[in-house]
Specification:
The protein is α/β, with parallel strands linked by helices. Helices cover about 30% and strands about 20% of the residues.
């Protein structure tokens, strides 16, 4: 079945993942005459509710601090769980029960529960990620960490070491993988992989790094994709800025070597196109934009099996990780309707059309293309939003260092209802031979996936796209790429941590970042594109 298990660590990840799960739920079909292009069994699990009825809930673990779940409770309409009764006889005196005031449901949630049309959401009405959630979760998916409280000024959850210590403490007491993850993994027929989403510039980075250690200990051969969320660094005090940078450096140093794919995502200092309007202070807005890219870039991994082939998480990592140690990929996106890439002068082209076995879905095809490109044809200007940025202070220096980045591997996804597929020019086996040849020659590998399924804009989604009407759908294109700009980002971070990190850990951290950066330079900066040549 090629299941994917999701690990959501922290407030930012849960905002993004809530948009993701709402989108997945929108793909459900309820008629025998209609079949979704998406295989729901990959991300959802079947079960039985309290009344014996069948349920279908996400394969996910949701971690958050005390107060971070808003009005969401373990007990819901599908699973009426009785609270365990305290043993009698230990204390026969009077007791006083103190209960924290429950957070009231938003008007949107109340409308969903009552089966009526919900009111429009606003930045003011969305207080928590659960306020715009449309999906029921299994009780074992909800994991509250009561040791820290959301937004606490007394015990802030900000330092990388705090998250690391919290995980180690909980894991020592409970064995978190055995308690939380193992049941999801064991019920999977053939687990395709694990996708982790977490902030990397606060304490969740330390928590995620130690979680990754345990995942690798237990599931060493499993593909693990990591989405690292970052906040902006502008308009914050210098001390807090350095704290976030050191958190980021530690996260990259610890997580990247163990991840099959590591995708940093940030809206910081992003120059957005005119058709996008985002309130940077609203996590609902920011996560909505990021989720558009995240959901699109991962869409090929959950398509229905077609002619025995699926673009799995492992296949995506192999396209991007050309040299074996290039797991950091930059993410870009466009949401305009122009799906024509720059540069039609390609020296070779290989296409694979994978068509559904079901004749009713003959128009719903996806195509993987491996295209060779000339040195001047990077296809980098097709995408007008970049979620992988160097620091603003170092950006000009980076541009002087490299005029045109060299692309090692690039995976593009194009989705719209009007996507057209061309004729089959080569077999899948021939495509594999071409990839192997280009790997050996050090040439860029570009994989393209075209999907006849546009991105749905739901009533839970913020109105951030100017040209899109509410509850409509949107054509989206994304690009994941490994190229030489990754080295610039890591080197800038390496330079900054000399001031942001203590002496006792500075050398080891700097050396680790240096080794990661080298993977995006070797065989290129010293080659024929250097200034000396």
């Amino acid at each position: 079945m090629h299941e994917i298990i999701t690990l959501q660590l922290g407030q930012r990840s849960n905002y993004l993942a809530t948009h993701f799960w709402n989108t997945q739920e929108s793909y459900f079909t309820y008629s025998n005459d209609e079949e979704s292009l998406v295989d729901h069994d990959i991300h959802f699990r079947a079960g039985l509710g309290a009344d014996g009825s069948e349920t279908f809930t996400p394969r996910t673990l949701i971690y958050d601090l005390k107060g971070g779940f808003g009005s969401l409770r373990k007990i819901n309409a599908l699973y009426e769980i009785e609270e365990p009764v305290a043993p009698q006889g230990l204390w026969d005196g009077s007791t006083i029960v103190q209960r924290q005031t429950a957070i009231e449901q938003s008007a949107y949630q109340q409308s969903l529960d009552n089966g009526v049309e919900p009111p429009p959401l606003t930045t003011e009405s969305v207080r928590y990620w659960s306020d715009f959630n449309r999906v029921y979760y299994h009780p074992k998916s909800i994991v509250q960490l009561g040791e820290y409280e959301l937004g606490s000024a007394l015990m802030p959850f900000e330092s990388w070491s705090v998250g690391e210590e919290l995980f180690n403490s909980l894991d020592k007491e409970h064995d978190l993988l055995d308690r939380d993850l193992r049941s999801f993994a064991e019920e999977a027929d053939h687990m395709q992989g694990i996708q982790m989403i977490a902030g990397v510039d606060d304490a969740w980075g330390g928590f995620a790094a130690r979680y990754m250690d345990r995942v690798r200990d237990e599931y060493g051969k499993t593909t693990v994709h990591f989405c690292g969320l970052e906040d902006g660094l502008s308009s914050i005090p210098r001390e807090k800025r350095y704290l976030r940078l050191s958190n980021m450096a530690k996260s990259i140093s610890e997580i990247v070597p163990q991840a099959s794919l590591f995708v940093p995502m940030t809206l910081a200092a992003t120059v957005l196109p005119s058709y996008v309007t985002v309130d940077a202070q609203s996590r609902w807005h920011v996560s909505g934009l990021l989720s558009t890219a995240f959901e699109t870039m991962t869409l090929p991994s959950r398509l229905r099996l077609q002619n025995g082939s699926r673009a799995s998480l492992d296949q995506l990592a192999n396209v991007l990780n050309v040299n074996g140690n290039q797991s950091i990929a930059k993410l870009r996106m466009s949401t305009d309707q122009n799906f024509v890439s720059n540069g039609d002068h390609r020296s070779a082209r290989l296409e694979i059309s994978l068509q559904s076995r079901d004749p009713r879905l003959s128009s719903q095809e996806r195509r993987l293309e491996v295209e060779s490109t000339s040195q001047g044809d990077r296809d980098l200007k097709v995408f007008d939003m970049d979620f992988f940025l160097v620091e603003a202070g170092e950006q000009s220096r980076a541009r002087r260092s490299v005029k045109e980045p060299h692309v090692f591997g690039q995976a593009e996804t194009y989705r719209a209802d009007d996507q057209k597929d061309g004729e089959v020019e080569d077999t899948e086996q021939e495509a594999g031979h071409e990839r192997a040849r280009r790997r050996a020659a050090g040439l860029p590998i570009i994989q393209k996936t075209r999907i006849s399924l546009s991105f749905p804009l739901l009533d839970s989604f913020p109105h951030i796209y100017a040209n899109a009407s509410p509850t409509s759908s949107l054509g989206v294109s994304t690009s994941l790429s490994t190229d030489t700009t990754v080295a610039l980002r890591i080197k800038n971070l390496q330079h900054i941590i000399s001031r942001a990190v203590g002496v006792e850990e500075r050398e080891a951290l700097s050396n680790s970042l240096g080794q990661i950066a080298e993977a995006y330079e070797e065989g290129w900066d010293s080659g024929s594109d250097s200034d000396e040549d």
